[in-house]
Amino acid sequence: MSIPPLPEGEPAPDLADPHALLEGYLDYYRGSLLRKAAALDEDELRRSRLPSGWTPLELIRHLQYVERRWLEWGFAGRQVPDPWGDRGTGKAEDRWEVPRGTSTREVLDAFAAQCDRSRRVTAEAALGQRAAVGGRFPTPEEAPSLAWILFHLLQEYARHVGQLDVAVELAGGGTGE
Known about the structure:
Blueprint: H1 18-38, H2 42-45, H3 56-75, H4 104-123, H5 146-170
Helix pairs in contact: 1-5, 3-4, 3-5
């Protein structure tokens, strides 16, 4: 599996700008996810090694939709088709899925494209700016700040990249990064 170019390491330790730091760590975790998945062959990408039943490819697709839900539909307030499309029947409570016939390349390309869209959404926005009303958030009181959303995305990535690390280890791959 080829990996889109993303930073290999954490942001520079002298980076003090909070916006650049949050964006830098988000890219770091995006890259970590893809590097860990690259350690797996096609069969392992589509195989679950955990009782919950998710596969590494489903995890990548899930994170594509997480970014879409929080940044495009959420922060930007865009009407996006099927915001829960990573789920079996499109409902938030369903398990993740990759539609039958979808290639690994299609999943990776869709993930990379979503990451690009997410970067464009956040590039010029201030951390204190609240999410637009009308997409995911129906009222101003429910709309979180961009800083909150980016922190939420970071914890989501950190958790899932750790889970993927376990799945890679169980498949006979290495650990850590």
